[in-house]
Design goal:
It comes from Sphingomonas daechungensis. This is Leucyl aminopeptidase family protein. With about 475 residues, this protein is an alpha/beta fold. The chain contains 15 helices and 20 strands. It is elongated, with a radius of gyration of 24 Å. The mean pLDDT is about 95.
């Protein structure tokens, strides 16, 4: 894990390379104040102040220089407007020439995060750190916690399934729980089979060393409002007997991306010391193929009591979440949030950048959408359309786990989950991609946190620290 603490420093007048931020509106006025040689260099680089993460280094004395960088709006910095600089500038200490980085400090940190666990040589590490000086020392710890949480998601999702099965995911949960002072309970074996039959059924084809389990973490004062965070922890998804094609299986190491989001959110809640009684639930399984695999047409009784017919073994994520939701309902939480890389249909509808958000409370949904815009972590509300509930009808059981039509796949999956949500609880379900197909400044190709910061922003406001 990258040591983000060392990349932000309190301004104590230390020597630092100035960074001038300009936008299309103010560039010409700013350029007129610069020496002639600066203007000539900017012209040679065809730098015109238009956004696009462009920047130019302006030389001064030996080993001294200033930086000018284009942003969309100098008055409203985004989290990512400094990320390209953090990725590209030489080792050293930097400071904005005017103003403070504010939310842009997050991109400065994440622009220097790399997942290099499987590289024999890492040239970037030899470049050294780029430190940003800020006059807002009170924001440093919170920004570092956010960067740590995002990096945790990225690192877990990027780790190959060979090295991140249910047992290793359990260890990752234990590591974070120990760090935040939380209690961990692991349900496995006969206790899982009898108490959480859907989780057990999905994972029953895996080898013994990759056996299924339910990870439950408790943190906080029992007298505080109970909040439950759930994450889909399918460490690899072959599709089961409804086997995925090779192209569909290639990225399935990321099918535990929901669990990574949930764990990261738990660390943020505890790190900020929000006054809640937190319950974290992660069903950790591998959806494999063997003689003991669950079959299409099988019927499994859920923890809640509903009998579920397995229409499609590749619709396994909603099965493990259903038993986790049933467990959550037994503790009567006032709010439930679940994250899952659940359906390809959500990606068809909204693409890779927008997590599909399903919420059973309009005010809660509006808060989440607003926060997503404010922190540049957008989410998009999708309907819990009751009429589609009939698509889950089974001829022999209480309901099926999938429909026979390709239409409204993400909505139908959410309607399945809704059957297991306790009455009276506010619930938000995020069908997130947890992946970035194309790199952007501060956001490399690979695992990524989508929707995490939006949810945390809402929880921080709903449960403010005293």
């Amino acid at each position: 894990m990258t040591d983000f603490n060392s990349l932000l420093a309190t301004d104590r007048g230390q020597k630092a390379h100035p960074i001038h931020l300009v936008d299309k509106a103010n560039f010409e006025g700013w350029a007129k104040t610069r020496p002639a040689e600066d203007r000539a260099l900017l012209k040679a680089h065809r730098f015109d102040g238009k956004a696009g993460f462009a920047f130019v280094m302006l030389p001064r004395k030996v080993d001294e220089f200033e930086v000018v960088s284009a942003v969309h709006n100098v008055d409203e910095l985004s989290p990512w407007c400094l990320a390209k600089l953090a990725e590209s500038l030489p080792e050293g200490t930097y400071k904005l020439a005017t103003g403070e980085p504010g939310p842009a400090a997050l991109g400065w940190l994440l622009g220097q995060h790399r997942f290099d666990d499987y590289r024999s040589k890492t040239d970037d590490a030899e470049r050294g750190a780029r430190v940003l000086v800020t006059g807002e020392p009170a924001r440093i710890d919170a920004t570092v916690r956010l960067a740590d949480a995002v990096a945790l998601v990225r690192d877990l999702v990027n780790t190959p399934a060979l090295d991140l099965g249910p047992a290793e995911l359990e260890q990752a949960v234990r590591t974070q729980a120990e760090r935040i002072g939380a209690e961990v309970k692991v349900i496995s074996g006969d206790e899982l089979s009898s108490g959480y039959p859907l989780i057990a059924a999905v994972g029953q084809a895996a080898s013994k060393d990759r056996a299924p389990r339910l990870l439950e973490v408790e943190w906080g004062n029992p007298d505080h409002p109970r909040v439950t965070i759930i994450g889909k922890g399918v460490c690899f998804d072959t599709g089961g007997l409804d086997l995925k094609p090779a192209s569909g299986m290639r990225l399935m190491k990321k099918d535990m991306g929901g669990a990574a989001h949930a764990l990261a959110l738990a660390t943020l809640i505890a790190g900020e010391r929000l006054p809640v009684r937190l319950q974290l639930l992660i069903p950790a399984v591998e959806n494999s193929v063997s003689g003991s695999a669950i079959r299409p047409g099988d019927v499994v009784k859920s923890r809640q009591g509903l009998q579920v017919e397995i229409d499609n073994t590749d619709a396994e994520g909603r099965l493990v979440l259903a038993d986790a939701l049933a467990r959550a309902s037994e503790r009567e939480p006032e709010l439930i949030v679940d994250f899952a890389t659940l359906t390809g249909a959500a990606r068809v509808a909204l693409g890779p950048d927008l997590p599909a958000m399903f919420v059973n409370d309009d005010d809660f949904a509006n808060d989440l959408a607003k926060a997503g815009t404010e922190v540049t972590d957008p989410v998009w509300r999708m309907p819990l359309w009751d009429a589609y509930d009939e698509m889950l009808k089974s001829d022999i059981a209480d309901l099926a786990n999938a429909s026979n039509t390709p239409m409204a796949g993400a909505v139908v999956a959410a309607m399945f989950l809704k059957r297991f949500v306790p009455q009276g609880a506010k619930w938000a379900h995020f069908d997130t991609y947890a992946w970035r197909d194309q790199a952007k400044p501060g956001r490399p190709k690979g695992g990524d946190a989508l929707g995490l910061r939006a949810v945390f922003a809402v929880l921080s406001r709903r449960y403010p620290r005293p």
